[in-house]
């Protein structure tokens, strides 16, 4: 199951950024599972990684390499997460970097490794190494779509987003931002989701690029949850090749970040739309909070409540379960009698109880669409001083249980 | 579904404590849904209640009455939680106390009201009031079993525990402790679970009784989770009638608490064994923690992980998901390479990776039984300085989703 079945978008190429995809036989034989990405010399790279203490070998190696050299290659395998694999896992992650570096004549620490798939099985490194030349041979700027396929695991469809914008009305020049992502379960990123790769041809120095990445990750990949389980392998990489010749500095940074945010939100939402077993795409909006932390606490408690999620699966406007989740979210001195809740445009709770205007028929109608917004107003202070946060999640269906009872993460 | 289908135990009567059960027609017609309990004059009463900010009207009233007078009656209805019902809910909760007080010639604040069932529907107070005389007429010391039936909602079976012990080897006198509880979903108590009533004929002053209740609730009802959803109506009441004539003071307090704990743990575990859709009874033991808070953080993160719970449902020894949950539990400076995990007696993880001695066959064998212990050793310090905590939970099955998609909490 999945929601909002839009066609895969048109992907603008990013000058200076190539992708090559092949099948190494790690996952199902014949299925693409190895993707190499090449960055032109001088590209800036920013990354955010899982904050799970139990993080995978490739995450450790990618972080080390990113801090010691300017990356030229990213190598990603699916079918095996190389997580919980101890010392051998570190050796295998390094081996993939060494092999690709030798093949392309760069230094080992200019290669960043990424893995996703089953946890705790040894990485079939021989298969991966044997397939590297084929992936390299496929490198091209126009292969975003096949790379989007190549990084998938339990996802039911590839996920991409792409746009071009004109940073300066005085010239015709365009900046391109294009990205792909994967992820479907074990989704509650904490700095980054499963895997995401976004490239732009803007010219951005590394420090500013990292700042931009943190800003937009916090409005996109860090605002989604399928099942509250943070992966061991989360990583999002943002590359600026500079090939457009358009320089980003403080003067046009905000515009750049706003455009980047569009691509990031589209990618993050595409993960939720393809969430394991998802039959609903749910936005949880919390306003009237004293700060961002308490707004997020309420939003995540509601979004992760199994009782709210099963009610959503049943299209049941069960406002009691929503209020019960709000009540246990741990907001200090919460005055429930000030809380109101809307489902899409229907007011279901006011003053902490069922809204006077509410009817079962209106609640049913509000729950019918595939896209549902649960809008919770805490009314904790003067509106101009309060904070609003939005996160995205799925419902909890039989299908989620089936997938995760059958699939070995 | 449910696990560990033991027969309902023999319930020793508690002198000075009577129970009367009837059908008020609030729930399914003909099904018991109203229970009155009578405490002999001079009984001490202790209570712990939900910490959900969105708490039900009867919880508010019960807490008020408990603080202002010595209770003589408890009145419980199922089929309707009287939660999210605003001002009318408070009036209805009070009305049930007023009516029972008039019937029995006590003051209104000597009656504590309890409700459980659907949230957000008005309490059918007329039906409740009309049935009170029948419940009062049924009051008897030997009716624990029918009361245990009368407080159920989605539970598949009644839950009770009872014991007698000899507090002083110099005499033959016995103290009796008997209790019942209900609850199956929306279970993550925070001070108390759905509903629990325990009575003893020991003579205990109120302050000491409250201390005893807090101690044992923290080892029983506050150590269970079905779905991480804390109810709006949780309450556990402990009554000491004093009818045995045996006085509890500091000298024999510890022995009393130890016996009380046996009854409380049995009751709390019976809720988990009857957890919605449960096919496994899972103990999560975390040792080697620096303090109780971090042990519980790890235990609950593992117990509430949808991916761990679905693996348990599939009898899949998926240690990767367990480690991933440990890793995201938020323990500061966790050194994953010191973590080991056992499933029942099988070592599956050592030094943060798959144990050398582990085989798939051993993992399968460990997961086969209905009762599973996940034993996580954090090895965070010298064993004599570290802390161990144990909690109990269920797996996540299709059946859980079905029940909660169909049932209006």
UniProtKB/TrEMBL annotation, chains A, B:
Keywords in alphabetical order: Acyltransferase, Amino-acid biosynthesis, Arginine biosynthesis, Autocatalytic cleavage, Cytoplasm, Multifunctional enzyme, Transferase
Pfam families recorded: ArgJ
Chain residues that bind substrate: 153, 182, 193, 276, 404, 409
Localization in the cell: Cytoplasm
EC number per UniProt: 2.3.1.35, 2.3.1.1
Cleavage, annotated site positions: 192-193
GO molecular function: L-glutamate N-acetyltransferase activity; L-glutamate N-acetyltransferase activity, acting on acetyl-L-ornithine as donor
Assigned protein family: Belongs to the ArgJ family.
Reaction equation(s) it catalyzes: L-glutamate + acetyl-CoA = N-acetyl-L-glutamate + CoA + H(+); N(2)-acetyl-L-ornithine + L-glutamate = N-acetyl-L-glutamate + L-ornithine
Described function: Catalyzes two activities which are involved in the cyclic version of arginine biosynthesis: the synthesis of N-acetylglutamate from glutamate and acetyl-CoA as the acetyl donor, and of ornithine by transacetylation between N(2)-acetylornithine and glutamate.
Active-site residues, Swiss-Prot/TrEMBL: 193
Gene Ontology biological process terms, A to Z: L-arginine biosynthetic process; ornithine biosynthetic process
Enzyme class per UniProt: transferase
Name of the protein described by the UniProt record: Arginine biosynthesis bifunctional protein ArgJ
Signal peptide boundaries: none
Site residues, Involved in the stabilization of negative charge on the oxyanion by the formation of the oxyanion hole: 116-117
Gene it is expressed from: argJ
CC terms in the record's Gene Ontology section: cytoplasm
Originating species: gamma proteobacterium HTCC2207
Source lineage: Bacteria, Pseudomonadati, Pseudomonadota, Gammaproteobacteria, Cellvibrionales
Pathway: Amino-acid biosynthesis; L-arginine biosynthesis; L-ornithine and N-acetyl-L-glutamate from L-glutamate and N(2)-acetyl-L-ornithine (cyclic): step 1/1; Amino-acid biosynthesis; L-arginine biosynthesis; N(2)-acetyl-L-ornithine from L-glutamate: step 1/4
Subunit structure: Heterotetramer of two alpha and two beta chains.
């Amino acid at each position: 199951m999945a929601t909002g079945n839009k066609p895969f978008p048109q992907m603008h190429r990013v000058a200076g950024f190539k992708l090559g995809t092949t099948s190494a036989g790690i996952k199902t034989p014949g299925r693409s599972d190895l993707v190499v990405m090449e960055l032109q010399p001088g590209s800036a790279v920013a990354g955010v990684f899982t904050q799970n203490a139990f993080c995978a070998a490739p995450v450790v190696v990618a972080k080390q390499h990113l801090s010691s050299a300017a990356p030229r290659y990213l190598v990603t395998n699916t079918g095996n997460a190389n997580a919980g694999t101890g010392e051998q896992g570190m050796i295998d992650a390094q081996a993939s970097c060494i092999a690709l570096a030798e093949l392309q004549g760069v230094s080992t620490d200019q290669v960043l490794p990424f893995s996703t798939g089953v946890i705790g099985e040894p990485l079939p490194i021989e298969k991966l190494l044997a397939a590297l030349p084929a992936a390299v041979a496929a490198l091209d700027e126009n292969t975003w779509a096949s790379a989007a396929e190549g990084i998938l695991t339990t996802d039911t469809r590839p996920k991409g987003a792409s746009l071009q914008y004109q940073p300066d009305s005085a010239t015709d020049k365009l900046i391109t931002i294009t990205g792909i992502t994967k992820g479907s379960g074990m989704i509650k990123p904490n700095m980054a989701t499963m895997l995401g790769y976004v490239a732009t041809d803007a010219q951005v120095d590394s420090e500013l690029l990292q700042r931009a990445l943190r800003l937009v990750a916090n409005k996109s990949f860090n605002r989604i949850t399928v099942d509250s389980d943070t992966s061991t392998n989360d990583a999002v990489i943002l590359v600026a090749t500079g090939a457009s010749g358009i320089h980003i500095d403080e003067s046009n940074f905000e515009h750049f970040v706003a455009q980047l945010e569009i691509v990031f939100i589209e990618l993050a939402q595409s993960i939720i739309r393809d969430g394991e077993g998802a039959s609903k795409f749910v936005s949880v909006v919390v306003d009237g909070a004293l700060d961002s932390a308490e707004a997020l606490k309420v939003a995540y408690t509601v979004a992760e409540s199994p009782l709210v999620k099963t009610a959503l699966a049943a299209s049941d406007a069960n406002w009691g379960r929503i209020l019960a989740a709000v009540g246990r979210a741990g907001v200090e001195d919460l005055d429930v009698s000030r809380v109101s809740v809307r489902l899409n445009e229907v007011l279901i709770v006011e003053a902490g109880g069922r809204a006077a205007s509410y009817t079962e028929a209106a609640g049913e109608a509000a729950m019918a669409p595939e896209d549902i917004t649960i809008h919770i107003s805490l009314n904790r202070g003067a509106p101009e001083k309060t904070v609003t946060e939005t996160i995205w999640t799925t419902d909890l269906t039989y299908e989620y249980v089936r997938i995760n009872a059958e699939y070995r993460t």
